[in-house]
Structure prediction request, 146 residues.
Amino acid sequence: MSSTPSSTAIAVCPSCQAKNRVPTAAKGRPRCAKCKSEMPWLVDASDADFAAVTDTNVLVLVDLWAPWCGPCRMVAPVLESLARRYAGAIKVVKVNVDDNPGIAAAYDARSIPTLVFLRNGQSVDRIIGAQPEPALAAKIDALLAA
Prediction:
């Protein structure tokens, strides 16, 4: 899924394979226009639109990463898988720290990848370094149950 400056991303529905426009910023949860299934929500954000992109009523997982970072590249497919697995329950927001130093500074990202979990705009937990999918899923499950 890729994000565009027009504040939409294109995602493929895991249920029916239809391509859908998914808003980068919205309060609700994206659903497939064709089959009405919950859509994975994985978008990019920048210093300029971060507040709007993370202003949602679902748990937000912010991935602070950089293109040159090997562990960041390793965790990227895991985050895509988690976005599909927890469709409708989480939003994954990717922030390139090289291009967006304001967000990196705001969340004190001294090592990458840094994963920050937000609920109602407030940081509720963080993970530093690449983790395997079962560890990240366990953290998400615990945060969703809280």
Q: What stands out?
A: Residues 2-145 form a domain with the Glutaredoxin fold (CATH 3.40.30.10). Confidence is low (pLDDT under 50) at residues 1-6.
